[in-house]
Amino acid sequence: MNDFLKVKHLNMKIGKRKILKDINFSCRKGHITGLIGPNGAGKTTIMKCILGLYPYHKASIILNGTDIKSSNILNVGIGALIENPSIYPFLTGTEHLVMYAKDKNCIEDIVQALKMQSFINKKSKDYSLGMKQKLGIAIALLDNPQLIILDEPMNGLDPSSTYLLRNLLLKLAKQGITILISSHILSELEKIIDDVVMINNGKVILNVSKNKLEQQSQSTLFLSTNHNDKALKVLLEQGFKAQESNGMIKAFNISSSNLNELLAVIINNDIRLLGLEHKENGLEDTLLKLIESENN
Ligand SMILES: Nc1ncnc2c1ncn2[C@@H]1O[C@H](COP(=O)(O)OP(=O)(O)OP(=O)(O)O)[C@@H](O)[C@H]1O
C-alpha cells in the first residue's frame, strides 16, 4: 500500500496533561482520510504536530518515505487550513493569495475552482464567515501541495460551496494528492473519504477504510410475513434481536454476515415473506455507536 503520510508513535503533552497518546495512522497517496472524533479528542493537535506547529519528540512523521522534522516542514509541499484562516482585514483576497503563493500562475485557477471571483478583489474585512473560509481553503491549495490538511473546512460554507469543495477535493485526490480532513459533519465527510481515522481522548480507536467500515455497519430489517407472531418467536429463539412494530417484525443489528441466516430461519419455519425493507445505518450512526461504546 502506498502510504504518503505515516504518523508513528506520536505523543504530545501540554503542561502535565497527555493530549496525544501513541497516535499511529497512515494516509494513502491520492486518497482522502477523514480524521474524526468528539470535541477535544485531539484532531487539531495531531494536524498541528504534522505541520510542526506543535513540537513532538520521539515520534516519526514520514512524508513520502522521508521522516520530516518540524524545522524543514516549509519545504515539503503541504497545504493546510487549521482552525480559522489567518486573514489580514485590510488586504483583498487576491493580495493574500499573491502574498502566500510561490507560483502566482496557480491563483486564477483556484479562485475559479472555488467560485471566489465576485469578492476576491474586495478587502477581507468585509468578508462573511464563508468567504473567509473559502480564502483559507484557497491559501491551502496554493503551489500544488502533495498533501493537503484541512481542519473543519466546511465551517461556514453554504450548501453550494460545500458541494464545490467536495468535488474539488475528489478531483485533487484523483490527481494523486493526499488529503487529511477533519469535520464534524459526518454525513458530508462520508461522501468523500476513503479511509477513517477516529480519535477519542487522544487515542486512535479506529483506522480503517470506509468500505470496510460499511461492511461492518449494521442495519435494521423490517419484515412483513404471513405469520408475524411465529416469525418473532423463532427469530428470538435463534438469538436475533427483534420486536413487533406496526404490524411488522423489526430485526436489529443485521449485517451482511447474519442476513442469510435470518432469512433461512424464516423460510425453514414455513413462514412466507410478504415484504422486506432494509434500513442501513449510515457511517454517522456507526461511528456514534463506536464513540458511545468507547466512553461507557
Ligand atoms: N494550547 C493548548 N493549551 C492547553 N490545552 C490545549 C491546547 N491545545 C489543545 N489543548 C487541549 O488538547 C485537547 C485536544 O484539543 P484539540 O483542539 O486537538 O481537539 P479537537 O479534536 O480538534 O477538538 P474540536 O473538535 O473541538 O476542534 C483538548 O482537551 C484541548 O483542551
TrEMBL record:
Gene3D superfamilies on file: P-loop containing nucleotide triphosphate hydrolases
UniProt-listed InterPro entries: AAA+_ATPase, ABC_transporter-like_ATP-bd, ABC_transporter-like_CS, P-loop_NTPase
ABC transporter domain residues: 5-226
Keyword Ribosomal protein recorded: no
Domain of life according to the entry: Bacteria
Keywords: ATP-binding, Nucleotide-binding, Transport
GO molecular function, one term: ATP hydrolysis activity
PROSITE patterns hit by this protein: ABC_TRANSPORTER_1, ABC_TRANSPORTER_2
Pfam families given in the database record: ABC_tran
Family, per entry: Belongs to the ABC transporter superfamily.
Protein name from the UniProt record: ABC transporter, ATP-binding protein
Originating organism: Pediococcus damnosus
